[in-house]
Amino acid sequence: MHQNAPTDQGSRSVGLIKKGIVLVLLGIALGAVYLAATHRWPFAQRAAQHASAKSNVLYWYDAMNPQNHYNKPGKAPDGMDLVPMMAASQPQSSAATSPAQLPQGAIVVPIEKQTLAGVRTALVERKALAREVHTTAEIVADENRISHVHVKVSGFIDRVYVSSIAQFVRKGQPLFTFYSPDLVATEDEYLIAKRGDRTLGSAPFKEIAQGAQSLLESARQRLRYWDITEEQIRQIDQSGKAIHTLTVSSPVSGFVTDRKAYPQASITPDTEIYTISDLSSVWALADIYENEVPYVRVGQRVTFALSYYPGKTYSGNISFIYPTVDPQTRTVKVRVQLANSGYILKPQMFADAEVHVNYGTQIAVPREAVVDSGTEQQVFVEQGGGVFVPRKVTLGPTVDDQVVILSGLKAGETVVTSGNFLIDSESRLKGAQNPAQH
Questions:
Q1: CATH class, range 107-128+361-437
Q2: Which of 77, 278, 301, 427 could form a disulfide with 254 if both were Cys (CB 3.0 to 4.6 A apart)?
Q3: CATH 3.30.479.30 at 143-277, yes or no
Q4: For 275-291, what is each residue's pLDDT tens digit?
Q5: How confident is the model at residue 5 (pLDDT cuts 50, 70, 90)?
């Protein structure tokens, strides 16, 4: 009996060790199950998240055309990657902004999205707007200071005193002399009437004396009608002979711009013998584009600068706005009268013009606030609480970085000036989901 005791004792020890090992393994297994159930190991957590995310995808859509929906991921026909629309990503309206309380077409954009997209807003204000319109102008002769030299009787030019174009002449300076058979005959008739007046003017018969005086006055008046001066008539009276060649003088001071006076040339009343332009005052014709014409007024100040004379400027007020549009340049010309001391400004010169245009007080928003689709323009008006309402607007002129709003907004409202793409995308997406609201 004493020999078998150690053997039984060893068997019991081995059995206890085996039971311990089994208990340890069982504890490990139970711990693993517990961890998996309560703490989720990383691989289990990722798998669960993936399964949950997949189940939350409502559909896939094209970010450039959100109205197009797809059942699985991939690429849209325009090459863009399809974006999942998650159930959790749809804006959830609070009790204060429930769908029933939102304005027509309004969308809700969470603050987080606004921050990520850099959404900024600005207050709609009434502003006094003015700007300088830069354009080009051409210097031309003042049409009211252009004189055309004619004679009122046919004849032949005898001697020419002014024989070149661009020559400066003064008022009263002789231009040419001419001989006219008809004029000489009229002078002879005048001399005959004058002799008759001397003979019959003192006749005892009143009717005869008056007839002689009337004939003399008619002959003298006929000479005046043909532009014979009083001095030339006195010369005829003193000499008692007809003047065979009469001198024609310049009616104004200016530059000869056209000349048809040549010795022995035949002239008629239709012949424009000289054209003389007084350039002491000239016109500047500035081109104004069609969209700026409504804001240009007679009396507005215009400043001109010429590349020929650096640092020197000329200024004047608009005196006339032409009633037609140039079909080639689509511009309207405005006229400015400029004094031309020293004849520095020469016709056909070009100048840079600066017109001060005053638009008055207008409702205006930053240019970035307007979303232009090509067929219509709209802005997004902030209502507070992340609510934005699209609003169609009618645009006026653009003044620097401001756009005049003719209708659609009122002063005091707030519009989005940055991040419009996000708001516009959300609006289009909502329109695609709820076409009945648009």
A1: mainly beta
A2: 278
A3: no
A4: 999 999 999 999 999 88
A5: very low
